[in-house]
Amino acid sequence: MKYNCDIYEEENKWIVEFPDMPNVLTYGESKEEALYMAKDALNGVLAVDLDNKFPIPAPKYTGGYAIEVEPKIAFAITLRSCRAKLTQKEVASKIGMSYQQYQKLENPNKANPTLETLYKLQKVFNRPFLAL
User: Fold this and answer.
1) Theoretical Cys-Cys bridge with 97: which of 80, 81, 101, 131, CB 3.0 to 4.6 Å?
2) How many Å apart are CA 15 and CA 53, to the nearest integer?
């Protein structure tokens, strides 16, 4: 999963903005530093938004520079998106795990799904979570 950002120079600083994530703004002393900071800022905001159950906009903007989302954060976003109107408890029941175990899957700080869990999720949501 990637979000694209725009970067421009202003008053000897390189400013980074994400059109899909208006609450993410950062800068650096150089273009390279600004892009490094962009990844850190993007992942930080996404993790906090997930924790607070805020809506996460899908990446749509294709201009500028692509910034990769950390795998655990991307997994949590994808899983939450797939779940849509199902409750966490309903999905947990469908894949044969406790509600608390499932909650951890949608938490990027705690998610560490096994291959078996990924396989079960693929069957429930009829979409790949792992390409082998």
Assistant:
1) 101
2) 28
Tell me how far apart the alpha carbons of residues 109 and 32 are, in angstroms, rounded to a whole number. Answer: 27
**Residue 1, token pair as written in the block:** 């999963």
Amino acid sitting at position 12: N
Rg (CA), the chain: 17
Closest CA to 98 of 83, 71, 117: 117
* Cβ 3 vs Cβ 19: under 8 Å: no
Pairing of strands 13-18, 21-28: antiparallel
- pLDDT per residue as tens digits for the range 56-87: 999 999 999 999 999 999 999 999 999 888 99
Question: DSSP letter string over 43-111?
Answer: HHHHHHHHHTT---PPP---SSEEEEPPHHHHHHHHHHHHHTTS-HHHHHHHHT--HHHHHHHT-TTT-
pLDDT at 102: 93
CB of 15 within 8 A of CB of 34?
A: yes
Token couple for 84: 């849509």
